[in-house]
Amino acid sequence: MKAVIQNEFGNSTVLRLAEVETPNISENEVLIRTAFTSVNYADIKARKGRKGKGNFPLTLGLDTAGTVVAAGKSSGYAAGDRVIAFPTGGSYAEYAKANKQLTFKIPESLSFEQAAAMPTVSILSFILLHEIGQVRKSDTIVVHSGAGGVGSMLVQLAKLAEVETIIATVGNLGKESYVKNLGADFVYTYDRFSEEVLQITKGEGAHIIFDSVAGEVTTSSLDCLGLYGTLVQFGNSSGSAGHFTTGDVHSSCRNVKGFSLGTTRKRRPGVLAPAAEKVIDLFATGKVTLPIAGIFDLSEAAKAHDLMESREYEGKLLIRAHS
Description:
28% of the residues lie in helices and 26% in strands.
């Protein structure tokens, strides 16, 4: 089969299309003919050697949407099933294998394009909003990187949950209308959101802030997080760590919660099914959607990475493995 591989860490030029062996599956796994896979920022970090071990040749990719072509006898799936999955060994490939606990059926009404945009960012967003953040209708929340995949979904899910005030941040205000159309009440750039949040809340601060950027954004987030508020930290797309002291949380009774979908997939895969089922239903019924910013062939994976790193897009980027 064809797959995108890399034999060293580096910029997007290390990605190349190659012929590799089709994966063999165990009795608890399925082999999936990949229709589409999504590009996530974790792929960029892994390509550069900033995430994971990087056993070469390395195939990137966290999720896939496609059709089961072979199923282990204990998997509970059958050839022909339409699924999304978190595969083992990468998804930038014509075929991918996945454990049954990380594979989920999708209805015929859901296109593979929308299905592929869903797994990582949407399941993550649902867990962040409802399980980690435990957002209430009366809350004022801040969603960083509101035009990205996770941000786009967090804003929509918060709107669907009737959250009172949704504030989103972006790198530039050219993305403001896009994020407001998703449901954000206010959109600000990273350099001024903190003061604006305090003004909107009359000095009280936000109840919950979702931070995937880290670095200085974490510091600014703590500047506008209210008493008893929660900072949900789930990434560092800035490339820098965020810092806080015990003094930032002690007397103010504030919380900092961390979450990693990657760790949860590996350590507690069984807990993802309820969120996956709810997200699939939301997409299938049209209650939420993810705009597709671009679709690339396997041979164009480097272009997809370049666009993601430029941040000059809104929504999700997909890679097509089969027409």
